[in-house]
Each structure stands twice: as C-alpha cells, then as structure tokens.
Amino acid sequence: MDNQTKRLLETLVDSPNVKTVSFDVFDTLLFRPGFEPVDLFHLLSECAARLLGVSDFFSIRIAAEGEMAALSDSVPYRNLHTLEDIYRHIAKAHDLEEEKCSELCRIELDLERSVLRPRNDVRGLYERAIRSGKRVIAISDTYFSKSFMKILLDQKGFDQISEIYVSNDCGSRKDLGDIYSHVLECEDFDAVNILHIGDNLHSDLVMASAAGVMAVHCPAIIPGLFGLGSSKWSEALAGSEGMDPAARLLLGLAINEWFAEHPADDGASLFEGDLRLFGFIGLGPILFHIAQEIGESQEIQGTYSRVCFASRDGYLPKLAYDILQEGQAKKPSRYVYCGRAAYHVYRYKGDPAAFMLEPTLRSKGYTLRSLLSSIFQTKNHELFADLINSLQTSELEAEYLDAHDAIKRICIEYAERLREFFESERALASRYYSEKIASGESSRGIIFDVGYGGSVSRAIGALAEIKIDKIYLDADEENARSDQNHGTSTRVLIPDARDLKRDVPGIFLLFEELFSPAEPACVGFQGGAEVTPVFASDEVFEQRMKSDLATMQTAALDFIRVAKSTFASFAPYLRVSAAQDLLRPIQYAFARGRECEERMLSQILYPDRFFHNHPRPLSTKVVH
Description:
The protein is α/β, with parallel strands linked by helices. The protein is built from 31 helices and 14 strands.
C-alpha cells in the first residue's frame, strides 16, 4: 500500500473509538502468486490429467462457477457454494468420477495452503491492532469453509483472529452487503466502532460504508501497482494475460512479495536504481527457471552423474540449483573453472607459432603486448619478461594480427621453452577437466553456461576426451554446427530471444556478468596432488562493484528461497515454456534508455584480457 494509506490506517487502528478491526482475507491479509487467482489452476492441470484423464482442466475449473450460476434459480444469484460443491458440479457436468474429483479438490486445498503468503504491509496493521488490544475479525466472500479458513490463517501467522465470517457459512455476502448486517449483529458493536480493511472497492468499501461501517480501501498489490501514476509496471507487463502461465505465477509472486514490503515510487525508471529490487524481480524469476529446468529435466537428471556449472557465469545458477534441490534426490552440482584463457590451449597441436598466430576475434587495438600478457604474465612471469625484452616497442604495440614476423621470430628463439610451456598447459588443463567433468561419466558430461557458440563444449571435450553437452540460455548457428560436428547436444532455456536481443542487445552479457562472482578470471592451471586454477593477477575489483554485485545476487537468491517455500511440493509443475516472458521487466527497463543501467550497472566492470585491452562497465555493454 502507499505511504499515505498506511499512515491513515495506522492512525485509525490506534484510535480509541475503534473497538474491532475487520480484515478481508484474500489480497488483503494473504496474497496468491500470479496476476489473477485463477493462475493457480494451471498447477492443477497435471494432477487432473493423471486423476481424471482430462487435458484442459484449467478451462473446466475456471468455467465451473459460471456454470453453477447459470443453473441457479436465485435472483439475484447468491454465490454461497463451497469448493466441494464446485467439484461435485465438475464431476456431474463432465461425467467424471466423483471420488477422484474429491481427491483433486483436496489437492487444490493443499495448493492454496502452500502458496498463499502473508501480505506483510497489512500484517503490520494486524499486529498493530493486536498490540493495541483491539478485537480482530476476518470477513471473506469465499468458497472455502470456515474451518479451512481458520487453519489457513493460523498457519500463515494470523492466529489471534477472534472470529471468521465466511459467505458460505453466514448465508450472506460482502458484495451484496448483507454480511455486514450479520457481522454487526454477531459482534454486538455499533458500526462506527468497527474499522474494515479490504482490497475490493465495491465489496470492502462501498458496501461496508453503506452498512455504516468505517471502511478503508487497501488495493491488492498488483492492481494497485498498475494503477500508480503513469503505471510503468502496467506498461512493462502490458498484455500479461497472454504470458506463459508459469511465468505469470513467478513474476506475480516476485511483484507481490516485493511491493508488500516496499511501497512503490512512481519515478523515472522501472527499477529506480534499486539493486535489491532489480535482483529480486529482474534476476530472481529467470534464475529460478534455470535451476528448475535443470532439476526437473528427466533427461538431464537421468543421463549424467552430475551437473557442472562453468565459471564465471555458472556461479549464481549453481547456488540457485543447490537451494532448490536441497533435500531432494537430484544429481549433485559442480562448479568448474572455465574461460577462453584457461581452455583455449586445447587448440595447441605442437607448434607454438601456429597456435599464437591463429586468428581469434579480439577487440580493435589488441596488441602483441596484450597477447603475450594474457598468455604468459600470470603463469610464467620469467618467460613473459624474456619475450617482452626480446621485442621492440613498435612490435609490442602493433596489433597482434599484424605481428606475424615478430611472433615467428620469438617462437624460433624460444622454441623449446614455448613448447614446454604449452605442452604443460595443455596437460594440466586436460587433467583438470578429466577429473572435474569426465570422472564418473560413462561417455558424456553436461555443463551450464550462458552461451553461445559451443566453445566450452569443444574445448573441454577435446581436453577431457569426452562429449560435453550444454545447457545454454541462448545459442547461435555456430553452436548448432558444433553440435552436429561433434555429436553433442544443447538444451536452450530461452528458445526465442529475438525480441529480447532486439530491444536489449547485451541482455546475455548482463547475465554473464551478474551471474558471476567478484573473482578474477581463470587463466590456466597449476599442478600438484590436485590441479587447481590460476587466476589473472592483474584483475582487482573495486569494493563498490563487490557490494553492488552482492546486493543483486543476494536478492535474487532470496527470491529462489521464497519461490521454493511458496510452491513447495507443487514446484515440479511450475515449468516455464516461454522464458522470455520472465524478462519483461528487464526488457522494458533497458529498452527505455540508459538511465536505468547507468544507475545500477556502472560499477560492474570485469576485465577480459583474452579479448580486450580496455575493460568497459556493464552499463555500456548492455545497450551496445
């Protein structure tokens, strides 16, 4: 709720004239994930298919109440049925076994118990009323029984509610207004001594006021957010009724949970430069999708002995996977140090000059000095110094693709040392990947990486002598050719990213960096009893970058925990087909201009000496 409404309600709750505080339940004390209550019915579809053999239970369930209204002789129609009544109607209308429909009814009740969450802004008012010694009651137009509502509210932390009035028990309703007369009679208080708080403008404000009850409208979170000022969130999620159902549930959960605690501000940008908001709503849902798809894929879980996550951008997805799979019989995860500088040595075939002269896509201005530094400086400083000292400054500052003669000359002069260096590097990389990925696998392993062309699979496969399949967010044509040529496969988690890349060209670079730890790049390996990574010695991260990155990543993992606790045993049914829908807020925010990314991402700066001389902040990479 907005701050003005919150202050008003706090004043009224504290007022000595108010003896009883009455709360609506759904969208006031409790909220469901999703944009609409009916979004939950999608999670029942698989259970319904198994129990009843129906393929489109969502349509059956959503139509049932309207069908019951059409069959009623009551004018006006008084919707006083229970959930059990609804399922008896479904059994009769569709010629289904009543016992199995009753079982599905119980599953729906379990689903509601699982996913309903306290709305924290209103919970604060409830707790304030309790502390003030007020009598607290709840009033709801619902098909749930009074006994179920009691169990539900107790479970969600509202266990000091003195009385619960539900429409099907009272024989009256809020939207018709007669339930307020019933409540006043039962409570034995004057109407002016009761404060009612609810989200429905008609049922909770107009009809309560008509009964003489003091009422305050407290809009449901998403309708309230969409109606705020210029309604940036409404624009960002325009057409949400056509979104992937699971994406609606995840985004709805993120938005409801966040804005129940943090009042919205109708400012200039969607995320308002708030790193926690960006992490929770922007990164959290897509991170859940990644971890969920890996954990629930029968192919992945049934084929491989472990799931590997490539550094650096596999760092956060691995943490999310570990959180979701804790306590479940899923394949273990492993973080594997990768990166072009670490595994590019797979292309070494015994000729140092041929290896160093191999054309690689590097940024303009990438010099011979840059090349030698990226290969040798951290791993063999003595050899690096000798190579540098043997070259003229003009040779060192020349673009490396134009330095053929200089490279050939040093490869002749230092032939033995260079062969020894590259052979050792290749042997160490081969040993590392054989131990980390190939060990225990029968014929192939699998690794997560943001994308795109399949180099991680080709390199590690060659070094470990095993086929490496991939889990990517996005893949290009080069990856398709690589799979065909090497007999590998790729599971793409965002299969249709065309609009995303059109609006936010660097969308996947954003994930590469925000999924990464504030840790230098792995540039190779060192031997011993165990092969361990060697990190770039010239990569030092500013404290502000570490802090910003930690804030976003912590918020994203907070969402993973919220989603896991919310959906619980129903999480396996939460499979997103159109993952690009999860990124609608990011797509909207970054397509609108530079302000949003400049505020949040300007401190995120990862050097990549293998490709670039001069690092750029993430804020400039996202839009170019």
